[in-house]
Design brief:
By secondary structure, this protein is mainly alpha-helical. It has 2 domains: 34 residues, no CATH class; 41 residues, no CATH class. The chain contains 4 helices and 2 strands. Strands 1-2 form a two-stranded antiparallel sheet. α2 packs antiparallel against α3. The longest helix is centred in the middle third of the chain and has 13 residues.
């Protein structure tokens, strides 16, 4: 992979509106600055999905994983609370 591929892709993401932050240390590191969905909003949505009685356990897990993809890995760990209700 050429050395210019990643920086060029990052510039394209910035051009279409993604807030990509670049941190330079011994290597370049990139991350998305802000999400459209805030952490308390994600917590509320996950709680609603997990406490729903009409969503199966499998669908519950799939929906929760999709919601967790909207945040960082560290925040996702904090949001996993396993509130699935059966019956």
């Amino acid at each position: 992979m050429p050395r210019t591929t990643v920086p060029r892709d990052i510039e394209r993401l910035k051009a279409v509106g993604f807030g990509v932050h670049t941190k330079r240390s011994c290597k370049y590191k990139y991350y998305l600055e802000d999400s459209n969905v805030e952490l308390p909003e994600l917590k509320l949505l996950i709680d609603a999905v997990e406490s729903s009685k009409f969503i199966t356990e499998k669908k519950n897990w799939l929906q929760m994983e999709k919601l967790l993809m909207l945040t960082s890995e560290i925040s996702a760990v904090k949001l996993k609370r396993n509130l699935y209700t059966s019956g």
